[in-house]
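Researcher: Good morning. I'm working through a list of sequences from a screen, and I'd like to move beyond sequence-only analysis. For each chain I'm collecting a predicted structure so we can compare shapes side by side. This is the next one on the list. No need for commentary yet; just the structure.
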Amino acid sequence: VPSQPPAISHWPDIAGIDASDVRGRLGNDLSLFQNLLRRMLQEFAQLLPPADTTDAGLADFGRRMHKLKGGAGNLGAKAIQQAADQVELACTSGQHELLAGLVQGLAAQLQSLQQAAAPVLRAKLADSAQERSTPAPTVSDADLLELVQRLQRQELSAVGRFHALRAPLTQLLGPTAYASALSDVQGLRFHAAAATLKTYLT
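Model: Good morning. Structure tokens for this chain:
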């Protein structure tokens, strides 16, 4: 019977994160949650209003906010998701006068989340240091091909098989791509997940 990600009985309670929502989105995978949260907070640390307020500059900043909105949504950070959506809307509608206040408010929320999540992220760094002392798990081409074929045939058994290969797939794809593929599998978008995994076949 394919194994599932280990059940986490004590998911961390972080102010600003909807734990129930993110556990469902990420398949109860605490390590993946910690990796994605750390990356998002690092990428959008010290957020400032756009210096370039031309149409091109605002479009570029709007794309960054769209990325933040998606990442925050995947992590259950709903207030940040909504705030990023407001900033994106201000960029696309040309409401320059609103941007400074909206971005400052969003930056404050990100800083608050950083502080609330610090103990959890520190624990992840300690775990990662220990994990580096052991060989990283790998997935064979045969196992990867088998999973791709199950997904292409739209077999429900592919869900369990995907979870059974969680550790080596995370190592192969990286946390962000793994989270995207996991979302496709959980949403039964098997062809999309198969297309992603197929690119890693040698």
